[in-house]
Fold each of these.
Amino acid sequence: MKSILLTGGAGFIGSHTCLSLLENGYEIFVIDSYINSSRKSLENVLKILKKKYNRNLKNSLNLFEGDLKNVRDIEAVFQKANEVNKSIEAVIHFAGLKSVSESMAYPLCYWENNFYGTINLLKIMEKYNCKNIVFSSSATVYQTKINQLLNERDKCSPVNPYGQTKLAVEKLLKDIYKSAPSEWRIACLRYFNPVGAHESGLIGEAPFGKPNNLFPQITKVAIGIMSEIKIFGSDWPTPDGTGIRDYIHVMDLSEGHISSLNYLLKEKPQMITLNLGTGKGTSVKEFIRTFEKINNVEIPFSFVERRPGDNAFVVADNSFAKSILSWEPSRNIEDICRNGWNWQVMNPDGY
Ligand code: UFG
């Protein structure tokens, strides 16, 4: 039997994707350092599956604590998979550091984890003849445009070290693909703004420390852990003056991974780059108002200066992803607000 390795599989997007993979009958290996994630996320994935299907899938989920900076940690997983006759067929590579502001303060750390870690992973994949990979990239690689949807052929020019590391890995993957185009199957998935939580409320986003992103802050204000949202700028060239983003429900994103993986494994070797977004923009003010209405709570906010490096409008043209994958986001902003709030209420302190 073949299996899928998820690097960083205990994190926010990784844990939701584990759930979708297990639901679709895949055998999974996970390597995670747990520096920004919790073991409990995957315990809860098993709880969700037990409740929904009355099946214990513990034996289909093989967990390894390890860091991609240590090549031996990676090799241990591939070796074990071979030993138990479940060799790794493909990798979904989530592991990486992801805070824009932190990346500006600690660029070396970001390059070491995100780039060097990927080099180690690819070395071991080659050694074990595993040549199928889905990579977590980001919309942050694009040079943004005013009020226009971003498509995969648009110019890339990231403005922070985090984005630079994502683009560098995409380029590395391109070189690897070109070295053996009849062997490699590679998908770079450019995520827009992943938010929300699984409807069970058992898994969700649990940032350590004060969150930087908008949505976890909204839920923290709603529950009283934070007093208000500081909106970065009221004078953006958008209808209500606040920034517009493409918020995608984490379950739609996780299903996008399954579709990408299925596509890669059934088609001829190739490299594809896909935007995973909804194609719909929501402003900060609209998001806050929707959350208030759906959940009947109040979210106080005030305006502060624009945040350096921010843009008015970052929204995906997702037509390419929709056309080649049998995938389309099916959840809206209301679902995001409902499910994200449920997760926060059920887990006020995270995992
Ligand atoms: N915002 C506020 N106040 C806050 C936080 C955010 O007003 O306290 C605003 C931002 O200005 C922006 C919107 O809310 O208009 C969304 O901001 P986030 O920080 O939630 O998300 P970003 O769009 O800045 O960045 C996210 C991820 C990045 C990823 C990028 C891709 O955090 O990792 O999307 O476009 F690269």
Amino acid sequence: MTNTSAEFDNSIVADDNVVALTDPLTGLGNRRRLMDKVRKLAAERADDPAPFTIGLANIDGFKPINDLFGHAAGNEILCQIAHRLRACLPDGGFVARIESDEFAFVLPLVFEKKGAEKIGRMFKEVLSAPYDLGDRNVRLSASFGFAVYPFAGEQFAELMKSADTALYRSKRRGRSQITVYSEEIAEEMRYSTEVEQALRRAIIANEVEVHFQPIISIADGAILGFEALARWTDRELGFISPGVFIPLAEERGFIDSLTESLLRKATQTARDWPAHLFLSFNLSSAQLTDPATSLNVMAILNSVGYDPRRLEMEITETAMMTDPETAASVVDELRAVGIGVSLDDFGTGQSSLGRLRDFSFDKVKIDRSFVSEITIDQSSEHIVKAILTMCEGLNLKVIAEGIETPEQAAKLLELGCVCGQGYLFGKAVNAETTYRLIKADQETQIRNRNASLTSLNG
Ligand code: C2E
Ligand code: MG
Ligand code: MG
């Protein structure tokens, strides 16, 4: 084990200040020393208006590491991080530890975004190598936020706040991200906080609606079922796409209550449909890492009185990858009670064939990006063909997503794909319109049947 805790920041002359300005665990400077450094530099640069950069690095998921391996191991990792950061600091740079798992840098010779990103990538690389804990190796990642003086602030507090906003954005975007503060980023953060607040309010007020997009038999347009899609229009913010608010609810930790309310609404509507029509519902990634998901789903279905065999859950590959073991058991439990499971957006994630073998699915939904190119791009056609052949062998049904033109529909039929959805057959519409669609579809089916009977008899 490398023990770096005894080392002190050698740039400080040993005096009474050393203790007050030093982080006792790692020997790096602390927040006060960082503040001194930044203030001094800002004062120098006030006359000579050359920019400089400050940065923050926060270790991703440090708490679970501490919980899993114990505090001594956690401390050892922090010391090794300090050691690595100090070793790779660029000329004139300074690093401090300012919170348990947060480090700050001053980079006097980094003047703009590109330079900060380059240093961020280098730090990221350096921190991603395994940590030696004697009996085991541990890997971790870090998120970064940078702020360039004087654009992101002239005073220490303001600069730190900007770096913090940038770091927060990195954290929100997942692990190992690097963000350099800008006015647009600040605006983006303000907007998402506004959306978050409005969405929380809308969920409580039960204002997030469910619309339904028909899934049809491509050959004759007969309706087979519907995909439930969340719809939300805020009084002030206007229409907000689920592509925006679903990930936001996931990030900010309230997707569970949203999903529950959507599933309840969707099944209450679908309960009144003819029994042969199924409901397809999108499960979010958070639910795939929660072992209680199938129980929660069943509790809703029981209280609504909806037959689980008429429900399909759409999940994405990316969502399954976060915690494949839990995801696999959630999928198995759902299927055990008769709920079908479809792999959504197939072809856009890792599309690992192993996953199709290891997980038990019922359906695969071919992503719109292939369907929309199928008549103009040979490789998309080949990919769709390959997916269809593979799914046939694995006994999986296939739905083509995003069919917009009759040519695409014809091509899909020619390749042997019989089910699909897309604007050609209908956009997502509210419960009432959905019901009218179902009625009209039933009438068409009866008319078709009568017509074929007449032609047979005649
Ligand atoms: P998704 O599950 O892949 O849903 C299909 C998306 O493609 C929907 O967008 C749908 O309106 C759109 N679409 C369908 N046919 C066509 C077409 O022919 N052309 C084009 N250009 N688009 C088409 P939407 O409703 O904006 O939803 C976006 C994504 O948001 C969904 O992708 C799904 O991942 C997520 N989402 C929507 N509702 C929910 C929900 O209730 N829960 C969860 N967890 N996610 C949801
Ligand atoms: Mg879907
Ligand atoms: Mg999809």
Amino acid sequence: MSKVALITGVTGQDGSYLSEFLLSKGYEVHGIIRRSSVDFRERIAHLEGQPNFHLHFGDLGDSMSLVKVVGKVKPTEIYNLAAQSHVQVSFDSPEFTADVDATGVLRVLEAVRACGLEKTCRIYQASTSELYGKVEEVPQNENTPFHPYSPYAVAKLYGFWIVKEYREAYNMFCCSGILFNHESERRGETFVTRKITLAAARIAQGLQDKLYLGNLSSLRDWGYAKDYVECMWLILQNDKPEDFVIATGVQHSVREFAYYAFKHAGIELKFEGEGMNEKGICVAGPEELVGKVLVEVSEDFYRPTDVVNLWGDPTKAKAKLGWNPSKTSFEELVKIMVESDMAKVAAEGAAQKVRMNLAEYLEKGIVK
Ligand code: NAP
Ligand code: GDD
């Protein structure tokens, strides 16, 4: 039987890599996109027009659209990646976040039941390490208690539990991947890693003076998105529907990420001071930058409640799925992202000078 995958959130970072991965495995891939006044989907533009790649309009806030697409496509696997995925934004738009990230999951499950596919369609839910939130133990595994610490995490917790409920109540093959942070050259520009690599590239090329960040001591377990999408697929190929933690097992701070990112861009930073007064000063690199403060801390990027100690234990995924969490190291990930942004910034050239730093623009609340 031919394998037919339906991906919600196909235009996002993970949706684009997962589409490529499933196409390479011979799947017929269908993606759900939202209606928009502009018709440009940067991350999947290279896939459009391929014979096995199809797009359908739909929205996680609209059950009817989901029932129509699921009924038409009759997928054998659904990957529910669509979400309002930014933690800071969830404080600004908590209701929208709950509708998409919590009730949206229920709508997908119900669409599968309404179309009579509950015995034939396997469902992957994009769950998150944010569920551990104000962490109760380190490192975190499948048995660690949850303590969500943002409107985003609370909404995702509903998604996690409703998937488990449908698995037990209706015997559906639906499961959650509890994924720790994963990044790439396609990462949204307001997430901290991409904000840093883009800024390092701009500063190195004389197009930006300084980078403002929030909590530099926050700790994350960062992996490469391209490696993580394979795991989503492996979770659905497992004999039994089970939930898995997907992580590298290695932890770094935001400060360390910034240090290595600037280093790859040819700038050596030294961090001095503490808390709001901490600064990243250029101690080696282009002559005109040496001695200058390139990284500063701004209150604008602090969250009302922040998750500061994420560190995953991927033992179960290694043992049961045969997944290799060390494919791309932290250093390689930073290098991939910086090299991509150095090339992007160079190509965009002078146009960058007039382009406001999108990350600061959004996060300072100028655009809501
Ligand atoms: P992303 O780049 O922000 O992509 C989110 C996707 O969801 C986009 O395609 C977006 O469409 C779509 N979307 C948002 N609201 C929607 C709605 N109402 N209806 C339909 N589609 C909607 O996120 P990502 O990094 O790829 O993450 C994928 C999933 O994994 C998300 O659920 C996220 O919460 C979760 N997750 C991510 C990480 C990580 O580190 N990346 C870790 C754990 C879990 P538009 O293009 O139209 O905006
Ligand atoms: N975005 C951002 N911007 N974060 C900053 C900044 C800044 O200027 N300065 C410090 N940080 C800190 C945040 O406070 C947080 O502790 C950490 O950097 C990571 O922030 P993000 O990159 O925005 O990611 P996240 O961990 O909050 O959420 C991402 O990972 C989750 C998995 O744990 C998202 O992809 C979520 O969708 C995902 O579930």
